[in-house]
């Protein structure tokens, strides 16, 4: 069977899957039950992907690190008639934000040709740095935060004081945030959502210049697909947060000091799609208008970036 090259043929199934997931967990926004929302999104995306042309393999799925419902690693989707492709998926990014009725929750998926996505095994967390195309040659995860700020500022032709960095507001990042601010940069600290944070650094109108810090590995692989499609820059390395993860990585022979470049995270063409769930600056939450349910999505593919608003008859 042939391997795919992302195109409009594969964009439509990916978009349909995230739209289905967003509409399925719409009812659960603000109801305090993130697991139920995740289950609804996962079931809807699985059902949608079952009819996708070709044969997809889930290389990395969300759920293992927080014991959430998931499309599991190695799961096969699609109708089997067409190209083979890899999938990275998070049916509900920022589950807690959805449960609390706060902005930032998304349904997300990334697709690439078969065999091109990095398979992280037991790695649940990843240290990462993401920038847009203009600074893609300036980043170095082995360098200090201050050195990266200086290099990116030079690549962008702006002083460090004009840079904005996205870092998740987590206890593990207290020192990083303090160092970035001491160096002169502004730091945006959302409580969750490093996919959205990476998009803020990647998109021309995203409002940030760089994402730094430790987030989920599934989110890292999906982000890599968006970065590759847009010609941005990204580096990552496993960053275990629990003793059990350290042991699992050691048993799997995964080197936590090895820095992975973008081409190692995803090689070749890829696409990324997200649909808004609970709203926010990136994407609207689903809404009703004219008797139809509407969603807003973003599609990042090698042929460009599209924001798509679509409506469907109310169920």
Shape: globular
Please report the total strand number as a whole number.
14
Fold-level CATH name of the largest domain? Fructose-1,6-Bisphosphatase, Chain A, domain 1
The end-to-end distance, rounded to whole angstroms, is 37 Å
CATH class of the largest domain: Alpha Beta
What is the count of DSSP helices, taking H or I runs of 4+ residues? 9
Query: In percent terms, what proportion of residues is strand?
Result: 25-35%
Sheet of most strands: 8 strands, mixed
Q: What's the number of domains?
A: 2
Oligomer: single chain
The CATH superfamily of the largest domain is identified as Fructose-1,6-Bisphosphatase, subunit A, domain 1
Helical content (DSSP H or I, runs of 4+): 25-40%
Gist of the model:
Helices cover 31% and strands 27% of the residues. The chain is of the alpha+beta class and 315 residues long. Helix 6 packs parallel to helix 7 (217-230).
Describe the structure.
This protein has two domains: 8-116 and 270-313, Fructose-1,6-Bisphosphatase, Chain A, domain 1 (2-Layer Sandwich); 125-265, D-Maltodextrin-Binding Protein, domain 2. β6, α5 (174-182) and β7 (186-188) form a beta-alpha-beta unit. The strands form two sheets. Strands 1, 2, 3, 4, 11, 12, 13 and 14 form an eight-stranded mixed beta sheet that branches. It contains nine helices and 14 strands. Helix content is 31%, strand content 27%. It has helices at residues 8-25, 34-50, 95-100, 145-156, 174-182, 194-202, 217-230, 243-252, 262-265, and strands spanning 55-61, 76-77, 84-93, 106-113, 125-131, 164-166, 186-188, 210-216, 233-238, 260-261, 270-276, 287-289, 292-301, 304-313. The protein has 315 residues and is an alpha+beta fold. α1 (8-25) runs antiparallel to α2 and α6 packs parallel to α7 (217-230).
């Amino acid at each position: 069977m042939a391997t795919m090259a992302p195109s409009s043929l594969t964009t439509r199934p990916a978009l349909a899957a995230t739209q289905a997931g967003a509409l399925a967990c719409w009812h659960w926004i603000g109801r305090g039950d993130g697991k139920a929302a995740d289950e609804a999104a996962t079931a809807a995306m699985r059902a949608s992907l079952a009819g996708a042309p070709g044969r997809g393999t889930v290389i990395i799925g969300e759920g293992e690190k927080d014991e959430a419902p998931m499309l599991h690693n190695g799961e096969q989707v699609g109708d089997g008639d067409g190209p083979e492709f890899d999938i990275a998926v998070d049916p509900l990014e920022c589950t807690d934000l959805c449960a609390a009725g706060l902005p930032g929750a998304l349904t997300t998926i990334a697709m690439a040709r078969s065999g091109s996505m990095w398979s992280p095994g037991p790695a649940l967390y990843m240290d990462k740095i993401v920038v847009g195309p203009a600074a893609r040659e300036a980043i170095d995860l082995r360098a200090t935060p201050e050195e990266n700020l200086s290099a990116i500022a030079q690549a962008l032709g702006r002083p460090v004081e004009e840079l904005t960095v996205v870092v998740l507001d987590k206890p593990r990042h207290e020192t990083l945030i303090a160092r970035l601010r001491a160096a002169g940069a502004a730091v945006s600290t959302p409580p969750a959502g490093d996919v959205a944070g990476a998009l803020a650094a990647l998109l021309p109108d995203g409002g940030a210049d760089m994402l730094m810090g430790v987030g989920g590995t599934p989110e890292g692989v999906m982000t890599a697909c968006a970065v590759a499609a847009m010609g941005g820059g990204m580096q990552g390395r496993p960053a275990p947060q629990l003793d059990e993860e350290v042991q699992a990585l050691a048993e799997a022979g995964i080197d936590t000091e090895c820095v992975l470049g973008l081409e190692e995270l995803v090689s070749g063409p890829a696409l990324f799609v997200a649909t808004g769930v609970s709203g926010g600056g990136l994407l609207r939450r689903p809404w009703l208008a004219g008797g139809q349910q509407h969603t807003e999505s973003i599609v990042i593919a090698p042929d460009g970036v599209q924001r798509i608003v679509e409506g469907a008859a109310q169920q």
